[in-house]
């Protein structure tokens, strides 16, 4: 075998290995980015479910309270922001605002014993608590996927591919400190 042929084979093998390395890393980054998008969709679905429960809860509270309009309006406004949120930051901010508004509403509900005993209200409250748990799980899964993706785009040699192909850092779904618990109402 001639020396030129040997060099050609070595070069071809090196190029093939580099191509496999690049292709494998690229595909890994694509998979991780898709997982982040999928998990964000899961968060959106749970937030939408939560948003769908709010009007029923508000209408039930309205039926019992006549002068608590400010708290009801805050819940309604926060819900509208959550439903209209498009980015992770918007969803996170709207979610935090809705948590605060719901906590305030549940404090007011304490003053209405008939409302606290109403089966429709109790069912809605249970549904909301279950949805809060689903939101927390979906948010954790999303943040885990973001962590894995962000780590992958920072590690060598994937960081080179990430910058070449436009894989950008993803934002975490943040929760205000102390606001990450299900609103609690004691009867």
Task: Describe the structure in your own words.
The protein has 187 residues and is mostly helical. The chain has one domain: de novo design (two linked rop proteins) (Up-down Bundle). Helix content is 80%, strand content 0%. The chain has 6 helices and no strands. It has helices at 3-64, 69-84, 88-109, 113-117, 119-154, 158-165. It is rod-shaped, with a radius of gyration of 25 Å. The N and C termini lie far apart (89 Å). Residues 179-187 have low confidence and may be disordered.
What's the short story on this structure?
By secondary structure, the chain is an all-alpha fold.
| CATH homologous superfamily grouping | LemA-like domain
Cα(first) to Cα(last) distance is: 89 Å
The amount of helix comes to: over 70%
Shape: rod-shaped
Broad CATH class: Mainly Alpha
Note the main sheet. none
Share of residues in strands = under 5%
Radius of gyration: 25 Å
Number of separate structural domains: 1
Average pLDDT works out at 88
CATH topology: de novo design (two linked rop proteins)
At CATH level 2, the architecture is: Up-down Bundle
Which spans of ≥5 residues are poorly predicted at pLDDT below 50?
179-187
Give the helix tally: 6
Sheet/helix structural class: mainly alpha
Q: How many individual β-strands?
A: 0
What is the element string, with H for helices and E for strands?
A: HHHHHH
